[in-house]
């Protein structure tokens, strides 16, 4: 009964917030429902015949979750999915409010939830997960999370308490993530990249997890993918990267168009044309592939869905503005940002770039992290550079230190004016590469929507 | 003219963009025509007496700080302390700043010894002090203000013999109670401020460079350099800190 009241209240509040045109409508109904019944998520989610899948990690959780939802959809299993990046408990509750009719019946049979890293303990407690996937742990908004080690420890504690039927899917290339799977009773399924093709680089400055989680000694890397991801071992206690069940064994990049790769799994080796650029998207694909495999979907069906995938909101979006284009890329921490730059630097053309830096809570209030971003790799590749957002001048300062052509640097804090200036100054048929933090990305989308270019993302 | 910078524990103590401080020192030397070289010294690598003009150390996570404290005690820490007594300059941020004091007392376990450059000590606090900081300081340039972002739970207390780097206007500073932020002793500056600190506070860079040159006997009259981007970044950050406070 109480759950029913909560559901009705949640649904009503959703209607009201839409009517009043209040932003953030994606979490409000959930907050209301949980206010009326703290066990709301547990009650409703418990009705899902196939349970739910929790996807977490600092980078790529939206892409991975959206990929998995697409794969499930393609194989005839309709999933619930918190697709707006509403990944705290209130967002999960809101998704359930939306997907339940007034009699308390759910419209779908399985849920794919992307979950904020620090919310995993709560989410494990309040849902009945079938699979839990941890994709990576990078330094991100530490002002909110505390230290990475602590975060991983809490995650492991939560997973230890989860039902022993739950399968744990982990990125083997991330030592901190891989350490979560060691010594737990659950079935653990690892994925990773096993080819050294693009790995002949030394570790980047933003590298985070460099120490053995078991003895504290420094890890030795035989190969790096990016950040602290790669093949590693501990010289002191012998711990090493776990064996992978799903792995990319051959990679061939086609620049911004994506990557062609061979994916090996217990079901054989299959070729995949991944329509998303960058190594980090390979990990997202491998994660989604592993989940789907654990759910009994055949590799052919998985690859089909992956090859037809359209990027999740803001992760990589192309917007046509008359004759010109904007390529929007979300970058919220140094590891993600460096990977984006590395991908851009592979292009054979000079690029006009806009960098939008905000310091709201959702972006992380501390902008120090931009000094861990290797903007230097754009030397010779960057054309005009436009800095914008609440901390536009911090970004401009970073750009000037990177030795990129300062004479073509424009700084304009107001996002709308900056977009106008940037679009006016790029050539006909040209592309503006727009790299932005989270809340700046939301604002940019609103601005473009007003001009009639993209749908506002909460129109779902 | 030539300066050599020693970047202490570049691999372990480099959180929240601390390397921006090294980049700022290099860039300002370069703009003034001073040749500069950066060498990193990590765990187990010894420090040669007389080789370095400026030392830098950033912050790290607990586990990393423990390893560094062990590595620094003994000869290595002694050499750094001697160099600073002899006029070398130094910047120590956050975790580095704590280890440049006398000791750090965690919640549980033994005290971590510091190298004692600053007559100060740090104890673990319950509250994490996070946010933008504005502090009034003699090294704050024309406006007299330092700008940065703090993120620490350690509480540092200075003895009467040592001056703070500044007094907080917004934020917590050393311990959240006595209004002091950072420490300054001879050519050594300690601070909780990330930002990175030096790019947006160029007068601290100049102080460190000047002290280092002075020891070498070169009295350079600093010509002003174009700091318009720095000034804009400072103004924007100050406005942001005051507004969100
Ligand atoms: Zn080990």
Question: How is this structure best described in words?
Answer:
The longest helix of chain A has 18 residues, at 2-19. Chain A contains 15 helices and 17 strands. The two termini of chain A are 29 Å apart. The model of chain A is unreliable at 456-460 (pLDDT under 50). Chain A has 460 residues and is of the alpha/beta class. Chain A has helices at residues 2-19, 28-36, 40-45, 61-74, 89-98, 120-126, 142-145, 148-161, 175-180, 279-294, 299-307, 334-345, 392-401, 415-425, 438-450, and strands spanning 52-56, 79-81, 110-114, 129-134, 167-171, 187-193, 219-224, 230-234, 246-253, 259-265, 268-274, 317-321, 324-330, 351-356, 382-388, 409-411, 431-436. In chain A, a hairpin with a 2-residue loop joins strand 10 and strand 11. Chain B has 245 residues and is of the alpha/beta class. Chain B has one domain (2-244): Rossmann fold, CATH 3.40.50.880. Chain B is built from seven helices and twelve strands. Chain B has helices at residues 19-31, 62-72, 75-85, 95-99, 197-200, 202-215, 228-243; strands spanning 2-8, 35-41, 54-57, 89-93, 103-105, 112-113, 120-136, 145-158, 166-170, 180-181, 183-185, 188-191. In chain B, strands 2-1-3-4-12-11 form a six-stranded mixed sheet, sandwiched between helices. In chain B, strands 5, 6, 7, 8, 9 and 10 form a six-stranded mixed sheet that branches. Chain B is globular. Chain B starts with a strand and ends with a helix. The mean pLDDT of chain B is 93. Chains A and B meet through helix 13 of A and helix 1, helix 2, strand 7 and helix 7 of B. The complex binds zinc ion. Zinc ion binds at residues 212, 214-215, 217, 234, 236-237, 239 of chain A.
């Amino acid at each position: 009964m109480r759950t029913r009241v909560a559901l009705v209240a949640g649904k009503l509040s959703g209607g009201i917030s839409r009517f009043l045109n209040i932003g953030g409508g994606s979490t409000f109904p959930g907050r209301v429902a949980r206010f009326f019944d703290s066990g709301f998520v547990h009650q409703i989610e418990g009705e899902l015949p196939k349970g739910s899948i929790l996807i977490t990690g600092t980078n790529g959780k939206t892409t991975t979750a959206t990929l998995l939802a697409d794969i499930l959809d393609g194989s005839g299993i309709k999933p619930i999915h918190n697709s707006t990046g509403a990944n705290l408990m209130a967002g999960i509750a809101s998704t359930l409010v939306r997907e339940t009719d007034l009699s308390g019946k759910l419209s779908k049979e399985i849920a794919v939830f992307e979950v904020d890293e620090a919310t995993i303990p709560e989410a494990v407690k309040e849902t009945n997960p079938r699979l839990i996937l941890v994709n990576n742990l990078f330094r991100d908004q530490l002002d909110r999370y505390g230290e990475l080690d602590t975060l991983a420890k809490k995650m492991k504690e939560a997973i230890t308490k989860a039902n022993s039927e739950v399968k744990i899917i982990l990125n083997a290339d991330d030592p901190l993530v891989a350490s979560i799977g060691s010594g737990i009773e659950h079935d653990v399924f690892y994925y990773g990249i096993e080819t050294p093709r693009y790995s002949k680089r030394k570790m980047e400055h933003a590298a985070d997890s460099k120490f053995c989680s078991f003895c504290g000694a420094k890890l030795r890397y035989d190969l790096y993918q990016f950040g602290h991801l790669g093949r590693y071992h501990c010289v002191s206690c012998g711990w090493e990267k776990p064996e992978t069940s799903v792995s990319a064994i051959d990679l061939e990049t086609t620049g911004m168009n994506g990557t062609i790769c061979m994916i090996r799994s217990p079901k054989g080796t299959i070729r995949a044309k991944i329509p998303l650029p960058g190594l980090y998207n390979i990990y997202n694909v491998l994660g989604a592939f592993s989940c789907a495999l654990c759910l009994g979907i055949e590799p052919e069906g998985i690859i089909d869905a992956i090859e037809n995938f359209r990027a999740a909101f803001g992760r990589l979006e192309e917007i046509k503005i008359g004759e010109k284009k904007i390529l929007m890329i979300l970058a919220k921490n140094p590891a993600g940002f460096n990977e984006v730059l590395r991908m851009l630097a592979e292009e054979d053309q000079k690029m006009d770039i806009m960098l939008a830096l905000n310091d709201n809570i959702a972006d992380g209030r501390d902008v120090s992290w931009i000094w861990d971003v290797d903007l230097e790799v754009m030397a010779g590749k960057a054309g005009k550079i436009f800095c914008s957002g609440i901390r536009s001048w911090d970004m401009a300062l970073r750009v000037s230190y990177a030795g990129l052509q300062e004479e073509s640097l424009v700084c304009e804090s107001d996002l709308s004016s900056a977009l106008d200036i940037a679009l006016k100054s790029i050539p006909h048929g040209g592309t503006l590469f727009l790299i932005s933090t989270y809340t700046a990305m939301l604002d940019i989308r609103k601005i473009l929507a007003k001009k009639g270019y993209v749908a506002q993302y909460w129109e779902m | 003219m030539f300066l050599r910078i020693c970047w202490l524990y570049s691999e372990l103590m480099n959180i929240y963009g601390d390397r921006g401080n090294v980049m700022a020192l290099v860039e300002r030397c370069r703009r003034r025509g001073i040749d500069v070289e950066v060498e990193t010294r990590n765990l187990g690598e010894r420090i040669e007496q007389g080789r370095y003009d400026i030392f830098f150390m950033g912050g790290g996570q607990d586990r990393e700080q423990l390893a560094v404290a062990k590595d620094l005690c003994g000869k290595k820490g002694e050499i750094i302390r001697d160099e600073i007594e002899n006029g070398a300059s130094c910047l120590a941020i956050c975790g580095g700043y704590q280890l440049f004091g006398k000791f750090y007392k965690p919640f549980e376990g033994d005290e971590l010894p510091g190298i004692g450059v600053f007559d100060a000590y740090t104890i673990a606090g319950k509250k994490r002090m996070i946010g933008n900081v504005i502090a009034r300081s003699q090294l704050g340039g024309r406006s007299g203000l330092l700008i940065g972002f703090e993120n620490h739970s350690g509480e540092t207390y200075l003895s009467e013999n040592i001056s703070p780097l500044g007094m907080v206007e917004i934020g917590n500073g050393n311990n959240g109670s006595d209004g002091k932020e950072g420490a300054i002793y001879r050519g050594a500056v300690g601070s909780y401020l990330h930002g990175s600190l030096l790019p947006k506070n160029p007068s601290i860079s100049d102080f460190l460079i000047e002290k280092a040159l002075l020891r070498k006997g070169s009295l350079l009259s600093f010509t002003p350099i174009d700091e318009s981007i720095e000034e804009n970044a400072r103004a924007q950050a100050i406005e942001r800190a005051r507004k969100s406070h």
